[in-house]
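User: Before I run my own analysis I want an independent prediction to cross-check against. Here's the chain; please return only the structure tokens and, at the end, one sentence I can use as a sanity check.
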Amino acid sequence: MNLKLTRLATAASLIIGFGAGLPGNAQAQDSCPASGQLDTMYCDANKDLVADAPTDPRKWKDPSALVWAYTPVEDPAVYANIFKPLTDHLAACTSKRIVYYPVQSNSAEIEAMRSGRLHFAGFSTGPTGFAVNLAGAVPFAAKGAGTEVRGYNLVAVVKASSPYQKLADLKGKKVAHTSPSSNSGNLAPRVLFPEQGLTADTDYKPLMSGGHDKSILGVVSGDYDMGAVAGDVYERMIVRGTIKKEDVREIYRSPIFPTSSFAYAHDLKPELAKKLTDCFFSFRFTPEMTKEFNGDDRFLPISYQKDWAVVREVAEKSGTPYNKTAYETEAKREAEELAKKKAAPAKAP
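Assistant: Structure tokens:
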């Protein structure tokens, strides 16, 4: 099942799709007592900040195959094998075929759920807000160990041999961010770096690498002087042997943020949504998964309203609230960055 989408095509479709609106939006808004920051396709009558299931049972989805994806924080192909034990468990537990859908960008993943092609997904921290408000995602779980949900840090990484010791040393240098909607890869640095003496778009122009792994590899290869990345991805790459610990050096580590969320589409049949969440919580990671995910051994319940409060605050303070206008701006910027990369001459081997 080859459903890969390029960032450029997806970003363009998002801009067109969101700008044009979708049939029935006005009717949905008129009949809904409250929607908050959600798109007008959705209703939040209980005001828990996520989309309610449709009140009309005829709009509930109960497909024979459930399609899912995991956030493209690294090469999506890496996770097809890593998550195979989970996929097999969910298939047995739900008695449904489970199909893994390797998305190439945050925009592609959000659009896939919004258009009904994804039934559940793992979204990285920053894009979770856009997935909730614009795609009707309902976050229900996060990775953790025992009773503790996993958190992660924003980490600033430089080449070990570089002269940089603090963030202020990077003024006028090549600094990699990952993608516009990423929390640790773009939004958090814009809010947290200035108090350390480094301000995006003033002291440096962020260079969008397209992924946390790409930023880190770019630092190692010398393409970037520093990369702002998620600490858990950075640590996994060291454990996996993708990079050598002695080749890189941290010069900043932020307070803890919640890790990626797992969410189901709001219009899944309620009984199916309940079954899916129960199946997630009954799963225990294999030793290989526990090693890959820094000691995590299970999925634990989360609340978007409570657990993502700090992330929403960062988004607001960075001037990127989780609304349609901000998303269209970020999707357009992402498309422009990709176009530049496509037009750039390839490096000599």
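Sanity check: The radius of gyration is 20 Å.
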